[in-house]
Amino acid sequence: PKQLWKDSFGRASIRALQILLIAGAVALLGYLVVTLKLVTLPLLLALIIASAMHPIIRMLHRAHFNRIWAAITALLGIILVLVAVISSVVMTVIYEWSDLAVQTQQGINKLITILSDWGVPLDETHLQEYLNKGSQYLQTSGAGTSAVEGVSMVTELVAGALLMIVMLFFFLLDGPRMWRFILGFVPERLTSRINDAGLASVHVLGKYIRGTVIIAAFAAVVDLIAMLVMRVPLAFPLAAMIFLSAFIPIVGALVSGICAALIALVAAGPMAAVVLVAVVVVVNQVEHHILQPKVMGSALSLHGIVIIAALAVGANQGGVAGALLAVPLSAVIWASYKAFRSTRLASSTESELAQEQAEYDDEAGSEEAPAQS
Description:
Layout: H1 8-35, H2 37-52, H3 54-62, H4 67-117, H5 124-139, H6 141-183, H7 188-229, H8 235-245, H9 251-268, H10 270-295, H11 304-372
Helix pairs in contact: 1-2, 2-6, 2-7, 2-11, 3-4, 4-6, 4-9, 7-8, 7-10, 7-11, 8-9, 9-10
């Protein structure tokens, strides 16, 4: 039986079994992450934010802040920024709600007229039928179940946010100590390589998040100026949506641009929608060809098909949060692998050079011995 594993088919079978074992371990890890998403998602978000805040923590330490005050200052800064953004968006929506209702009604009537001219059945009979179906759905138990699920989702979001804040504080406070504690369980021959992979992951993750913030801010500001010029309602909330959607590469900019163009079409007319679409396309090209190479560098050295596949898997398993986390986690895995491999190649090259030097010294010593005799 031992001979069966020594030929080419036997070696291929061993590789196939190894691949199946690795795939099973990855699938089990993914299942645990999705099942325990109330813990894993806040944990991953806290790790990402802590990696992005690492330069600020170092700057605070240089300013003679101790560990506790540096972590508290960074955490309070993040919370204040998030609260300011969310409150400004909510207040803008409340302030513009009355005008938006009138403009939306007029825009919907205009849109119904256009679609009816194109042959879409949207006359009063069909609209009344759609309204009746909607009211029947609200009276069914399914709507009540959805409402209960909505309350449960809000509860999970609040609990996850609080858990993320607590985890973020401890990562900002004791991140290096936690990493040294984890390295204590690693075999000594792998400590250097795994440490290099971890440092590369933090560097790439922080650079990716900071670069995405800069690119998203650029897109949001340019689109905001265009919407204000064309007098599109809810320009500030739309700009906030564009900023947040930029954290989902490729797909996020497309979806947010379509939403903004539809609102511009309904509220300001076709010309405003066409201009806004043109602005979104130009901004997208500037981001991909100018800003992203300058700001991110090699932080997102992934092919487009890998990004799309990661987004699909993340959205399928974790919804919006999964789509947000899929690309940075993929970039971290790839950076860790490259750092681990480069360290291994460097160590193997050094060992080969040392072996060659030892052989050369042995040969030189054996040649000197007869000469001396």
